[in-house]
Amino acid sequence: MKKLTLIAGPCAIEDDQTGFEIAEKVKSICDQYNVDYIFKASYRKANRSKNNSFTGIGDDTALNIINKIGKEFNLPTITDVHESHEPEKVANYVSNLQIPAFLCRQTELLIAAGKTGLGVNIKKGQFMSPSSMGFAVEKVQSTGNKNVWLCERGNSFGYNDLIVDSTAVFQLKKHNVPVIMDCTHAVQKPNQTSGVTGGDPSLIETIALSAIATGADGLFIETHPNPSKAKSDPHTMLKLDLLEPIIQKIIKVRDAIK
């Protein structure tokens, strides 16, 4: 990852239009600033606090939408997989697979993802140290797949907050794989009594700038035209029209430390 990589899109595919709108806007920004763009959207949200929380619009429907977005805008794509039977099917629709933070120790899932041959972005668990993520990398690489990335997203701090260790990116890079900073999930405030995860998106820019200054190869930013209306993670996504000013600053910082 020689150029800055941006993994961005909505938290989840929630209809047949929003993902296209986001992809078109983010692609135009990334083209302007010479950033490699990977469109991200979850085809299904398997990890929800409440039983009646939004989980998706149907697996096949959502996967087909992600696939169409990739083809229409000529973009690589990425989505989450949750169980070991999923990667083989999902690999037919996307360019890369993502392992959610809570599942970063699931051996069968990691190996199944590795066997697809696609890029595998492993999110560091909120409960994991940077050094311990080397074992997750080894599991994927044991399949012969060396296209593995690690994604920092903060550590649990008490029951209702996360904290980002400013040394985490540096430590994760010791595993000799690209390191992505998840700037949106790092601002989460989990375990709210409402059953809906809270967050503070005003901190996204700060986390992004810090990550780039400490050597991150890319950023993960979930974004939406109207986060308050989103069906998943409305309290952590960045409003779409706020993305470009952040990218402008990121490029300046990255250029300054080269």
Features:
258 residues, alpha/beta, TIM Barrel, 32% helix, 19% strand
Which value, in Å, is the CA radius of gyration? 17 Å
In DSSP terms (H or I, runs of 4 or more residues), the helix count works out at 8
CATH class: Alpha Beta
Give the integer mean of the pLDDT values. 93
Number of strands: 13
Which structural class matches the secondary elements? alpha/beta
Give the CATH superfamily.
Aldolase class I
Return the domain count: 1
Morphology call: globular
Distance between the termini: 14 Å
What is the H-and-E element order? EHEHEHEHEHEEEHEEEHEEH
Helix content, binned percent:
25-40%
Report on this structure:
With 258 residues, this protein is an alpha/beta fold. The protein has one domain: Alpha-Beta Barrel (TIM Barrel). Helices cover 32% and strands 19% of the residues. The chain is built from 8 helices and 13 strands. It has helices at 18-32, 59-73, 86-90, 107-115, 134-141, 168-172, 204-213, 243-257; strands spanning 5-9, 36-40, 77-80, 96-99, 119-123, 148-152, 155-156, 162-163, 179-182, 188-189, 198-199, 218-224, 238-239. It has an 8-stranded parallel β-barrel, surrounded by 5 helices. Strand 1 (5-9), helix 1 and strand 2 form a beta-alpha-beta unit. Helix 4 (107-115) packs across helix 5 (134-141).
Quick rundown:
Strand 2 (36-40), helix 2 (59-73) and strand 3 form a beta-alpha-beta unit. This protein has a single domain (5-257), classed as TIM Barrel (Alpha-Beta Barrel). With 258 residues, it is an alpha/beta fold.
List the helices and strands and how they pair.
Layout: E1 5-9, H1 18-32, E2 36-40, H2 59-73, E3 77-80, H3 86-90, E4 96-99, H4 107-115, E5 119-123, H5 134-141, E6 148-152, E7 155-156, E8 162-163, H6 168-172, E9 179-182, E10 188-189, E11 198-199, H7 204-213, E12 218-224, E13 238-239, H8 243-257
Parallel strand pairs: 1-2, 1-12, 2-3, 3-4, 4-5, 5-6, 6-9, 9-12, 12-13
Antiparallel strand pairs: 7-8, 10-11
Helix pairs in contact: 1-2, 4-5, 7-8
